[in-house]
Amino acid sequence: MSDQKVRSVVYKEKIPNKVKYAFSLGAFGKDLMYGMASIFLMIYFTDVLKISPVFVGSMFFVARLWDAFNDLLMGVIVDNTRSKYGKFVPWLALAIPLNIIIFYVMFTDFHLNGLSLCVFATILYTLWGMCYTVMDVPYWSLIPNLTSDPKERNKISVLPAVFASVSKSLIINGLGFQIIRFFGGGYQGYHNFATIICLVFLVTFSICTFTLPRVQTTAKTAKKMNFKDVMNVIKQNDQLRWTIALILLYNVGIQFIRSVSTYYFAYVCCNKNMLSAFMISACFAEIFGLLVFPKISKKMSRKKVFFLSCVLPAFGLIMLLAVSFVCPNNFILTAISGAIVQAGTGLERGCTTVCLADVVDYGEHKLGTRNEGIVFSLQALSKKFTSALTSLSIGFALGLTGYIPNTVQTLGTKNAIRALMCIVPALGMLLAYVIYKTKYKLNGEFMKKIMDAISGTAFPVGSEAIVGGRNNINTTAISEESAPDVSSFNESLGNVSTAGTANEQEPTSENSDIL
């Protein structure tokens, strides 16, 4: 082989606690911003700035479609970055001032109206999405590069998700309306809240960025990626395609719940305080789901864990739907519904983050390259695409059913909000499980064989394989001629997309940490 590949993970065994918690603080700050934009920006545009909901939904759809393409571009840029500070930290540092400036201006009223207001909202929202991408893609791409140890990977996947849940679910979803009222309500409340979020983000994400290790190297002489290479990675990595498909379906549910919840509790329940009951209980349930994920994964297969993550939210949403007809102002039943929904989503966040890290390993074995940026940018792409789809659907549903801001809604409008809040998300999550059950194969013994292969026990003939162990920072590339004959295993890898579930086994005491 003309190119020699030198791949490393930053930490051979345990990740220092300082790095774990600094990394998690970054999730806290960035998800404050994301939560504010995803939960309150649409209602801020429609009810405060008085922009047509049909226009807002259409604008969000187009902007997020562009942003989804932008995510893939950012993944390529990250994978192609070569610097003495690694390929992730430079982008995280750049993202800090960009996100603060755009986010602050986006929640500032310059007393525009008509066409100029629509143009302003479109430009600012599009720019913010692009700036957030500069931060989000390299942030999550760090995980498989920090460690290959299964236990540590579970921890570093779950801990930032817990911090993100506190900021997004508890502070933004649960207490957002109260905080906005505390700061004066109306425009002043939104603007002041956004200002505080900018300050918190500056502190937390700076701590994260400047605490992370400066060198995260995957290859010294690896060929730079272009879009043709990206398409080849997607085409050849069948598990990447199916993982993104199930994430996309699940995110349909999550995005509808987040985007519709403010309208649901304001106009169906006619009590904005009900949002707090739903979201606060949901936040603690999501944190519980995230914290128990590593323990549950030792007791049962990941397929069963993912089953719970899909069935629990569907059940909770159907319960919420029933409550909306019988007793819409019942705080206790609403809180229980929220807890059931988010306990499932907590498990899902743990599952899918580890799944994506495993997809990176699978891609390395099958294709001979690690593409963290591309893999995690596709996750971000799926979120942006579903966000675009939900915004368009909500905008048109509200417009077609006669939605009028700040007044009592018609029965047709209320039922449309009910369907978007409860029925559509439940269907998306259940379909995600169908994909996982029938198409996702990186479980049990099959994944263990892949881990052994890229550790040097076995590897695909004809690719740049790595020996010396995944936990050794200095590794040596070997030639095709010196590779042992493991053609039967490689053939099974080539046929993974059609393999049956016989390859998947329940965890045993020996391999329970291989997720």
Characterise this structure.
With 515 residues, the protein is mainly alpha-helical. The chain is 73% helix and 1% strand. It is built from 16 helices and 2 strands. The radius of gyration is 23 Å and the shape is globular. Mean pLDDT is 80; it is low at 1-7, 216-221 and 457-515.
State the gist of this model:
The chain is mainly α and about 525 residues long. It is built from 16 helices and two strands.
List its traits:
515 residues; mainly alpha; two-stranded antiparallel sheet; disordered N terminus
Gyration radius from CA atoms, angstroms: 23 Å
Quote the distance from N terminus to C terminus.
32 Å
> Share of helix among residues?
over 70%
Detail the poorly predicted runs: 1-7, 216-221, 457-515
Total number of helices: 16
Structural class: mainly alpha
Numbering strands along the chain, what is their spatial order in the largest sheet?
1-2
Q: What can be said about the biggest beta sheet?
A: 2 strands, antiparallel
- Shape type: globular
Number of DSSP strand runs: 2
Order of helices and strands: HHHHHHHHHHHHHHHEEH
Strand content: under 5%
What is the residue-mean pLDDT, rounded to a whole number?
80
